[in-house]
Input
Amino acid sequence: MRGAVKVVSYLTWLTQLGLSVAVPLVGFILLGVWLRNSRGWGSWVVIAGILLGLLGGAGGLYNSLKTLNQMLKHDDVPPPKGFNHHD
Output
């Protein structure tokens, strides 16, 4: 049962990694395109959206990898013994 919980937690982390990288990138690009089309701003706003999206995605990647590192360190610690399993 413990192995299944690990698999689910890693799949959850993988999903979070994808979202934390993709959402800022797509969101800032769409915001830049919307500002260019609706407000008549130049193409520079799309380029700024791309740059901000890349920075946000990089920050999300960094935070997700830091969380994975903490999860892996936590896996090295043996689980506590139950009440009936002491020597």
